[in-house]
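Possible race condition, two jobs.
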Amino acid sequence: MARRTRKHYPRLMELDLTPGITFTVLLLALLGWGIASGVQYLKHRTQLFMVKEVRVTGLSYLSASRILELAGVQKGVPLFSVSPEEIARRVLENKYVRAVNVRRILPGTVLIAVRERQPVAYLVDRVGYMVDDTGIILRVPRTLKVDELPIITGATVAQLLKDRTPLYRVLQLIAIIQEVDPLMLNFISNFHIGKDGWPELILVDGGARVVLGKEQFYQRLYLISQFLKQQGIERKLRDIRRIDVTFDQRIIVEYKTQKG
């Protein structure tokens, strides 16, 4: 009688799924399915959420009506049909807008948060221009007050658009002054860009010219700051023609009528 041999098959890996683990897996699967179904339901039932309000925030000198016109969002359309990215792209066409964030808020609001370009200086070239901290030059809006801004002279808009290097130097000085001693700006009439492209300070009350050179601006502006803190300096400035701080840790003062 022939002898049969038993065939050996490879054993499959056995998974030890205890009731607790099985329940957790099923619960997570159901939860994921529920969330996905809910999102799909909301998207397909957009008629439940219609645009009822379009709100603009963050404005100080731009008009909300202009931003709304650029956004082009119509009330009564499905909220989920509104593209925040497309709205942001259109609003950024306004050069006075530096950044924008658009959100859809249930049940029916579109929120447009605008960040305007803020001027740090005023440029004189037949008409007034504002300059922001990145060197963008724009006409001053009628709704914006620039009375207290530092004035930039010595270069035309056309020259600066061709080469912004002198403008960046002025902006660097303004940033350093705001860091070293913001009150020093009260003594500065304007930042004058010389023919060599390097700025000088023109002081109030007499128009004294401050020569800063091309380096060590932190140290030199600090020296000027201390000089301007002298008692009765406002009266003395009227008699000063030129102040030179390009020498090492020294201030050379030239008076309109040399003393002694």
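Job #2 (started ~2 s after job #1):
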Amino acid sequence: MIAVEDPSVVEDHVGLLTEMLEIPSVSTAEARLGQWLVRRLRGLGFNARRDRAGNVIAYWGSGPRETVLLGHMDTVPGWIPVRRDGDRLFGRGAVDAKGPLAAAITAISRQPADARQRFTLIAAVEEEGSSRGARHLVGRQAPDGLIVLEPSSWDAITVGYKGSLRLRYRISR
């Protein structure tokens, strides 16, 4: 775990994450969270919008180099009541992946507004199902850097992870 010296950073993150967890966002039903997130991001100083697929896209800073932080706002079905127990926060999506998304928002929003680095935060839709949000982003210009906000069950940055590949075989003689 990384120690944070300023307790307000932790409280800002926990407060934001708690609000996000209280808005259900099962895959294909993320619109309410997306609308709320755009308003919240604008309130923090981001230039934020939703694209045609429903992804939330938010921009911070300026400059020639872009780093994209890509997460998702949908969850698998089911409800876990939001509650805090000491330094632990529980709720559907707390780990996968509203927690990493809230951490990225908190970190970016603490950068100078005129940061020479451009940060693009993407909260994709339907990651837990059809990947509609990611498919919509495929034609986007490649950024200079990309951080995928997905839990990996490790306590450090993970380079590479797991995925799936669908293939169709045709065998002939």
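The chain has a mean pLDDT of 89.
Logs attached separately.
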